[in-house]
Amino acid sequence: MNAAELKAELTKKIEAANDLGQLDEVRVSALGKKGAITELMKGLGKMSPEDRKTEGAALNVMKDDIAAKLEDRQKTLKKAAMDEKLKSETLDITLEPRPARKGTIHPLTQTMDEMIAIFADMGFSIHDGPDIEDDFHNFTALNFPPKHPAREMQDTFFLPDAEGQDGDAAKRVLRTHTSTCQIRAMMELGAPLRKIVMGRVYRAEAMDTTHSAMFHQIEGMMIDTNTNMGHLKGIMKTFCEKFFGVEDLPVRFRPSFFPFTEPSAEVDIGCSKTRDAIKIGGGNDWLEIGGCGMVHPNVLKNVGIDPEKYQGFAFGMGLERMTMLKYGITDVRSFYDGDTRWNEYYGHDPINKPNLATGV
Predict the structure, then answer these.
(1) If you ran DSSP here, which 8-state letter would residue 106 be given?
(2) Which residue, of 37, 60, 87, 326, is most buried by count of CB atoms within 10 Å of its CB?
(3) For residue 82, what are the domain limits?
(4) Are residues 250 and 136 in the same domain?
């Protein structure tokens, strides 16, 4: 078989190879130690120098041509093999057009929305403030004088002093209550005033079923010329009845002490307790839900409001506690675990926003 016939035959075999194994067999039969092209090149030694030069050049051209055809065919077969592998091992990572599980509103967020709806209906608007506060807004303006024992009532996270500041303005803390936002609201807006604030607060407390170093509060304030304790009681009773969905809910006020209010009171709601459950409304027992009182004249003076002309009330509640009471949640730590199963169980429909028309 001459070189031209061998080239034609090898080309035909290369094109006919359907997988890499068959192609490798063709390669070995053509270019291996005992391959056809190799055997032809071994015969060059028996030729005359002139014939050897001519035949040798032709054989080298053929060898290179066959090697190139083998490489091209190999690339084609490898691509085909990869395409087939990808096709057989495909993993569909696209989402379902309508997921079987839908997102839910975290119960703490639901509580915030419910409270906003209730207080907005009573004429309150929302105010906000920073999580990192100075000593003046967190303590001094709220009638906590330096070294006053009441400062020890709260375990505070203290931060490094602010550069370029002096006195109370230099001392930085993570706010221990949202009352700091009320101070800012009074300083920014003056009186009359009707505001609620809510957000994170921080206290250096050990974590257990009812305590957390970070939790949430809601506080409200109303300042006007004729605001009195009767208004405070009416607001709190209306709120509790709307929030818990209980008509004529028993609400009582017990004397207490807060540096920023005078007189001060704790707010309790009526309930009945059994070994396994607590039912809000009626009964012969009480649950504490928060504190309140008439704004101390010193606080009004500290923010530039005349206490001879204006007076007001303030109240505050823990959002986690209110959520736990309403929805039967027993461990405050579960609010922050990020367990989607828990949120799916206690969560709320994101479409049905709280409103007083349909009930909160």
Answers:
(1) -
(2) 37
(3) 3-88
(4) yes
Could you tell me if 229 and 304 lie in one domain? Answer: yes
Phi, psi for residue 300 in degrees, rounded to 5:
-60, -40
Weakest mean pLDDT among 79-83, 111-115, 175-179, 251-255:
79-83
* 196/334 same-domain check: yes
Tell whether 97 is covered by a domain.
Answer: no
**Confidence band (pLDDT; 50, 70, 90) for 37?**
confident
Closest Cα partner for 7 from 35, 34, 33?
35
- Name the phi and psi angles at 145, rounded to 5: -65, 160
**pLDDT (average), residues 195-206:** 92
The answer to whether 293 and 313 are in contact (CB under 8 A) is yes
**Non-local CB neighbours of 20 within 8 Å, separated by 6+ positions:** 74, 77, 78, 81
Distance CA 117, CA 123 (A): 10
**Does 318 have pLDDT greater than 90?**
yes
Indicate the number of domains in the chain. 2
